[in-house]
Amino acid sequence: MATTTTTRVKAAERYATRIALIASLGAFFYGFEGMVLNGAIKAVGTTFHLGALAKGVAGSAGIIGGLIGAVIAGRLSDKVGRKTVLMWIGPFLLFEAIFGAFSPWLGGYPFLLLCRVVGGMGFGAATTVGPGYIAEIAPAAIRGRLIAFRQLEIILGLFFAGLINLYVSKSAGGSKQVWALGLYAWQWMFLCLLIPAVFYIVLTATIPESPRYLVSVGRDEEAKQVLARVSGETELDGRVNSIRKSLGAEGTTKMSFKAIMSSKWAGLVWVGMAIAAFQQLTGINGVFFYSNSLFEAVGFTEAMALQQTLLITFFKIVGVVTGIMLVDKVGRRNMLIGGGTLIFVSLGVVATVFTIAPVVDGKVDISHSPVLGYLAVGALCTFLLGFTSSWGPIFSIVMGEMFPNQIRGGAMSLASGADFLINFLVVLLFPYLIAWSPAGTYWIYCAFGVLSVIFTIRYLKETSGKQLEEMDELVD
């Protein structure tokens, strides 16, 4: 009997894992799209005759769309269902893939911005609804690692898009050159977004609806069927009753943002929004701004871009796999504290390098100091390990599971919205900060790293191993 139960539970975990991988495909598109733009942005600037500010707007337009999608999607998923919203995301991704590529003939630069905003709305919605959906279908024992797949898929999206960018650019002789069928190489890079978009559309149609949502709309029998498949349990009346009780008298579909922020859970939502902000303020975008310069200082030439990409990807994958393996054993809070410490120490090293490096023609220059170069590259790799094993994936885990059932959709929108808003501000302000002082910029990131650890120790409560119906216990 025990063997049969174990076999059933293992089969349920495999099924839940498959669902989680599909539900987090929006993150793969997010990484893929970001790297496509990274490879195409110079050519886009040439095609549309853009200045530095206009290129910056093109780069940040996706983040603006992400903010819109994030704010709308959580509450919308309360009304129409998690699966329904995830399925609606696909056309947004297709829109950017197809029309972004042909924007020179469909309206020029303004139309390209529209495509970026529409695509951003898609992956913003996926970033918000995906973690919550996975939290609602995952067994508590492996919930953390299933949500953490999102970070791995972002990394893989970045990596595969980087390989495609490299191939297309080299085959065409540069991203600004015509490659095939009269299209520029950068346009083919955009068209390659069709690959993850089509996979996303096809596969999301195969996943079940969230059992928590099904209970909220009175479809208890369907909820039991889904719970049986993802948990391996056979007696589910008690679980369904527990879910219904956790929804409260008003139910999840009736709580507005205003009601949530004036409820007993307001403090919990503020904690989630702060964790989202600190994830961006740890400097993930800033560190990469100077990554090419750091690698050049230790001998990596522009022609060695693939080797550099492989090295960075290696450390990212090691970090995220470490996080996936440990998060359900060590706990979310401890992982954030440990990873955050590694982050701010690494940032402190980078800041120190820029502080003591010589200044040539008014700019910090580490190219003539191999010791400083290797030290900075080592700190970059350590930073990657710290971020991808903790704050990268665990923000999504915490956001997906820390909020009680009654407010999850709306609270996830607020937390994810804070994530995209701070991301936008960091990207917008970073060039100005670097122009002011590279050393000062990284010391600021280091300080935020320290604050993130202190905040986590003081305010974040552990959610590992708890059923979602127990999250009310996080409220004092």
Automatic annotation (TrEMBL):
<feature type="transmembrane region" description="Helical">
    <location>
        <begin position="52"/>
        <end position="73"/>
    </location>
</feature>
<keyword id="KW-0812">Transmembrane</keyword>
<feature type="transmembrane region" description="Helical">
    <location>
        <begin position="265"/>
        <end position="290"/>
    </location>
</feature>
<dbReference type="InterPro" id="IPR050360">
    <property type="entry name" value="MFS_Sugar_Transporters"/>
</dbReference>
<dbReference type="InterPro" id="IPR036259">
    <property type="entry name" value="MFS_trans_sf"/>
</dbReference>
<feature type="transmembrane region" description="Helical">
    <location>
        <begin position="85"/>
        <end position="105"/>
    </location>
</feature>
<comment type="similarity">
    <text>Belongs to the major facilitator superfamily. Sugar transporter (TC 2.A.1.1) family.</text>
</comment>
<feature type="transmembrane region" description="Helical">
    <location>
        <begin position="111"/>
        <end position="135"/>
    </location>
</feature>
<protein>
    <submittedName>
        <fullName>MFS transporter</fullName>
    </submittedName>
</protein>
<feature type="transmembrane region" description="Helical">
    <location>
        <begin position="15"/>
        <end position="32"/>
    </location>
</feature>
<feature type="domain" description="Major facilitator superfamily (MFS) profile">
    <location>
        <begin position="19"/>
        <end position="464"/>
    </location>
</feature>
<dbReference type="InterPro" id="IPR003663">
    <property type="entry name" value="Sugar/inositol_transpt"/>
</dbReference>
<feature type="transmembrane region" description="Helical">
    <location>
        <begin position="188"/>
        <end position="207"/>
    </location>
</feature>
<keyword id="KW-1133">Transmembrane helix</keyword>
<keyword id="KW-0472">Membrane</keyword>
<feature type="transmembrane region" description="Helical">
    <location>
        <begin position="147"/>
        <end position="168"/>
    </location>
</feature>
<dbReference type="InterPro" id="IPR020846">
    <property type="entry name" value="MFS_dom"/>
</dbReference>
<dbReference type="GO" id="GO:0005886">
    <property type="term" value="C:plasma membrane"/>
</dbReference>
<feature type="transmembrane region" description="Helical">
    <location>
        <begin position="372"/>
        <end position="399"/>
    </location>
</feature>
<feature type="transmembrane region" description="Helical">
    <location>
        <begin position="310"/>
        <end position="327"/>
    </location>
</feature>
<dbReference type="InterPro" id="IPR005828">
    <property type="entry name" value="MFS_sugar_transport-like"/>
</dbReference>
<feature type="transmembrane region" description="Helical">
    <location>
        <begin position="442"/>
        <end position="460"/>
    </location>
</feature>
<feature type="transmembrane region" description="Helical">
    <location>
        <begin position="411"/>
        <end position="436"/>
    </location>
</feature>
<dbReference type="GO" id="GO:0005351">
    <property type="term" value="F:carbohydrate:proton symporter activity"/>
</dbReference>
<dbReference type="Pfam" id="PF00083">
    <property type="entry name" value="Sugar_tr"/>
</dbReference>
<dbReference type="InterPro" id="IPR005829">
    <property type="entry name" value="Sugar_transporter_CS"/>
</dbReference>
<keyword id="KW-0813">Transport</keyword>
<feature type="transmembrane region" description="Helical">
    <location>
        <begin position="339"/>
        <end position="360"/>
    </location>
</feature>
